[in-house]
Input
Amino acid sequence: MTTTRRNFIKNATVLSSVAAFSPHSFLAATQPLKEKLGIALVGLGYYSTDLLAPALQLTSHCELRGIVTGSPEKAAKWQQKYGIKDKNVYNYDNFDQIANNPDIDIVYVVLPPSMHREFTVRAAQAGKHVFCEKPMAPSVADCEAMIKACADHKVHLAIGYRCQHDPNIQAYMKVGKEKPFGKIKMVTSAAGYFDGRTTHWKQNKALGGGVMGDMGVYALQGARLATGEEPIAVTAQASTTRPEIYKEVEETMMFQLEFPSGALAACHTSYGINMNYLQVNYEKGWLKMEPHSAYSGNNGSLSDGTIINFENKNQQAKQMDEDAFAILNKKPLLVTGEEGLRDIRIVEAIYKAAKSGGRVKI
Amino acid sequence: MTTTRRNFIKNATVLSSVAAFSPHSFLAATQPLKEKLGIALVGLGYYSTDLLAPALQLTSHCELRGIVTGSPEKAAKWQQKYGIKDKNVYNYDNFDQIANNPDIDIVYVVLPPSMHREFTVRAAQAGKHVFCEKPMAPSVADCEAMIKACADHKVHLAIGYRCQHDPNIQAYMKVGKEKPFGKIKMVTSAAGYFDGRTTHWKQNKALGGGVMGDMGVYALQGARLATGEEPIAVTAQASTTRPEIYKEVEETMMFQLEFPSGALAACHTSYGINMNYLQVNYEKGWLKMEPHSAYSGNNGSLSDGTIINFENKNQQAKQMDEDAFAILNKKPLLVTGEEGLRDIRIVEAIYKAAKSGGRVKI
Output
């Protein structure tokens, strides 16, 4: 089994239409377009630098045209590397002038979570569509304000849930939806990595840090997408093995979800543990994915022998291309602000449960 | 990979001495013995009928010589099938006369958990060694009384944790102890099956029912044996999807353990979910077992490519033979009453945590 070729599907009844999710079939169905949408990245940290900008060299329906950064040095470097025009470079103060820039169609907010609301609202006010990184924002109130601003200004809002664009994730979502193995009973969903940094926003509460929003939404999405249900109650346990670093936010969160069907999920997320797996036990079978939410190589298997291992060359490129294509063609976006909000509503309940020690209904 | 041949070990540094655990090497080292210990099974339900009695046809150091049952019909059937002498057949009333029966060396208590204490104490008073099925008993007080009775009467007490005799389980215990992949960070341990019965002791509180003691100790042992540590605190969530059947006891328990090293475990057990897996994430690697506590076929792998898949023809035969051999040769028993008590102490804390919704220190 390799992760670079497209393996196939033993049981045609289970995943018969999964090919519809493939980037190839998707792009093959696309008519040649006359224009690409211009994207401006706001915040030039690791994720913009190492993932989004390289991905934007592979996209067909959008391209990197602008940057928003507080660092003139970074701006110069990026301009040189990606041929970005002077007029498309903004800082956080003059950002609102982007309203007058026809080169930029989409603002992609890649800042610490505490800044997502402000820059999403400002982008919407400037009449630009918004892509916003996950976690959508630190609070439900923030998410609602972001959704409202985009609706008020008639711009689209997509959350950067790259995984939902990955055909391997779509394959297990389909199993959750179609239930070929009967009722969903139990999900274990884990997402974490060892973060050696000490002063990143991830360790800073005011900036929206804490593992639950950052990596926890992968564990949470694993459970939500695998069941196709929304949890109705949560319990949670926050902990820290490095109190000298994790003073303000949790290093690790374990949380348990109850779903309307009776399905349960045990989820764990951590900045101290390298782990990424999903296991679902159905009435009459199981699904395993490992990894289930990595940048690449997501793969798994089902109890009937089906292998899930679709090619997915660049997740971020597929995400941005599909979202740009949807905007260009007035089709629904795959992951809207409402989906981001669903997670943050649960994240808020998880924090409340961890603090109180009790079961919190959602 | 098959479960019927003895696969081998890629990484000699990790599991170099694991062969010492094999039943073959164990028995090969054994000198021919002059006698076999006689076992009387107390309680002739499914486990005695389908597992223990057939296993006792395969043992070298002990054999089935007696039965204790409330059913004359069952007694007749068993006598015919296994050639059990009339004088070695007891009911629950005349059981204490077993003290005068030199044929019987060991009483194996295979009754519902609520009866373990009474029959362990009566067997000890009769001067017989005791094998007792898991869960050891419904309460810590019961376990302590059982340990004391056996000590007072100078007889051995072994708990029927067949898994600890399985070389596949011993292999992952060794990894937990030797820590070739650094610190243990996170354990997920699941054990459950769908039980369609409605009026078994498993659904009856007075008889010691509830999934936590019965299947839950497998999930708990998975976490304890994989870490080689004792938990210092627990949280837990009990639930039931079939309230018409699970009126008195829980159908499902999720529980979370904190270990002194900082390792965490997320465990789940259920009478409504077919599941049996163990995943351990270390600082620099992982271990997976699936199943990890089945009667046969336990197997797994490590992140360095090591396969754990030892032959283990009959777990119960190996368990009883090793325990009988230990008694015959005055060697320490592998799983004593103290080990059973360790679990029940945690089980009590889990019930307390589930009831209170809070974190319970152990």
Chain B has two domains: 33-159, 166-311+334-361. The interface with chain A takes residues 185-186, 188, 190, 192, 194, 235, 237, 239, 241, 252, 254, 256, 258, 262, 264, 266, 268, 270, 272-275, 277, 279, 281, 283-284, 286, 357-359 of chain B (CB under 8 Å). The longest strand of chain B covers residues 184-194. The two ends of chain B are 41 Å apart (CA to CA).
